[in-house]
Amino acid sequence: MTESKPNDLMERIVSLCKRRGLIFQSSEIYGGINGFWDYGPLGAELKRNVKDYWWRLMTQLRDDVAGLDATIIMHPRIWEASGHASTFADPMVDCLLTKKRYRADQIEPQSGLVFHYSGAEEGATPAGAKPKMSGEPYSYLVPDAKHAGRARQAARTFYQQRGLADPHPLGERTESVENSTRYNPENGSLLTEPRLFNLMFKTYVGPVESAENMAYLRPETAQAIFAQFKTVAEVSRQKVPFGICQIGKAFRNEINPRNFTFRSREFEQMELEFFIRPDEVVEAICGAVARPQKAGHPGAPRPDWGWQMWLQYWVEERLAFYESIGLPRSSLVEYWQKPAELAHYARATVDILFKFPFSKRDDKGELAGEELEGVAARSDFDLSQHQRFSGKAMTVFDEELKAAWAKLDDAKKAALTGRYFDARRAYLVKMNEPPEPAARQAQQEAAALAHGLYIPHVIEPSAGVDRLALALICNAYCEDQAPDDKGKMEKRVVMRFSPRIAPLKVAVFPLLKNRPELVAKARQVRDLLRPLMTVFYDDAGAIGRRYRRQDEAGTPFGVTVDFDTLGEQGESLKDTVTLRDRDTMKQERVKISQLPALLLERIQ
Ligand code: GAP
């Protein structure tokens, strides 16, 4: 990618997305709607390719993962069990002047001089009448005392909004502040105190808009997988370890949608919940639990893997996925969340970040990266919660455990039971179960190990389709030089999509549009390839311009039918075409009969 200022580069990428029909604003003719985006013809193909490839790798090419396609609106109790109803919230603040809303944790700290006012009174009051007052305090931050006029004007506006026609702010005093997040970085006005704002979109099911009929649009696809865990396990005849994956829409009423599609209010997720044995069960069956010894891919799964090995396995699988669709390893960051950053149920979470042009820079000036995907070890939290809230058992019966348990000596049984009991009791107490019933239930659950019963733990790789599409677009965007029709070098914008996910795989061109033999042959080639891949047929304009259009669309291959194809230069070149490579711009002569196999090999 050519070096350029990040915002400048992002602007050119956004403009290309609109110009070439990759992504544009939803409801554009009505001025758009903040946080919602539509994908045009090329964008829709790109997204579909990403999802299809993920689905293929995650379930179709594996024995141990089954697919699910659940509804967006589910029983509201699901969101109570998952914790979303009570805790899926961001702190928000409002500007007291403009009423604009911001995420409190995204306010840039400000320094300067604050003008405080204790209230205001009406200027012109009829004789004998009591002056109208506002006792509401207000503050405004300016860089220094020279800007006092701005603070006074803002205060007047503030009190005018509170019903005074000609307000005279009272009790002015100043204070120097350093790195304060109490003021709006856009205008200096005081912000409200942070309040929690639940991000779930609400709706009503049925004709009556009452509290009992309220439901949510799902904020993640994962919970449907947990709620349907038992059914899918049964119908797919899977045994732990196994996974359930799903691709689908998710909705979050983000306070501040931003960075193009990066933070949207409607987006798609690709999630896998991979259910594993708790470490105590692995130890009972295998004698010991394998833990990571070195970095990198740990190879094919083994029965003695504990959650740490599975976490490492999925992080590496996911990194390999990103590399296989064209994101170089150097553009990705593997970020292990610090203990204080972890969700309360997570044992570890590894975020896979991509270095977007708008990412912040670290101390060394390197792009720090933004989250594409989180791979989380979520323990048995989710299934346990659904068990408690639904009253339906989420345990599995593991025959190997039952058989292995019977052969353990008493000391081992006691040690494993004790560890399992501690973990279960800690979970129940954290969920506000009183200590005695919590201990009783944990005791029963630990005793159930002997009968081969337990609630599986889970490793969750959770990726966003839209963020990935944006990463692929940013990574593909490139400006270089290419010859025009007269051989003069000119600037070329080329989208270097990996052929695997490129929206269009090949473009077919007759050299000239007004020669029916060329057109007929080119259409034959198009029809030969179309059942196998996305083909774009283009006969409009000079061939150089047609190449340029396809370069901008990211089409990796171009096939030109010329007079040699028709056999005008002799039999040896008859029924051959030129095959042009988008990135090298090199052309090779290829037999039409060999095109399907050759192209399929290069795009798969
Ligand atoms: N089930 C776990 C879960 O939903 P998350 O980190 O909140 O975890 C997973 O979301 C992924 O979904 C993120 O890594 C990101 O790619 C995508 N995502 C989350 N919020 C998004 C938003 N507002 N806009 C676009 N993508 C989003």
The strand count comes to 29
The chain-level mean pLDDT equals 95
Sheet of most strands: 7 strands, mixed
Bound molecules: glycyl-adenosine-5'-phosphate
The helix tally amounts to 17
Shape: flat
| Low-confidence residue ranges | none
Content of β-strand? 25-35%
Helix content: 25-40%
Rounded to the nearest angstrom, the radius of gyration is: 31 Å
Helix-strand makeup class: alpha+beta
Can you walk me through this structure?
There is one protein chain. The chain is of the alpha+beta class and 604 residues long. Helices cover 32% and strands 25% of the residues. It has 17 helices and 29 strands. The strands form nine sheets. Strands 3-15-16-22-19-18-17 form a seven-stranded mixed β-sheet, with helices on both faces. β28 and β29 form a beta hairpin. α2 packs across α14, α8 runs antiparallel to α12 and α12 packs antiparallel against α13. The longest helix is centred in the C-terminal third of the chain and has 21 residues. The radius of gyration is 31 Å and the shape is flat. The protein starts with 5 loop residues before the first helix and ends with a helix. The structure holds glycyl-adenosine-5'-phosphate. The site of glycyl-adenosine-5'-phosphate has 18 residues, from β16, β19, β22 and α14. The site of glycyl-adenosine-5'-phosphate (GAP) has 18 residues, from β16, β19, β22 and α14.
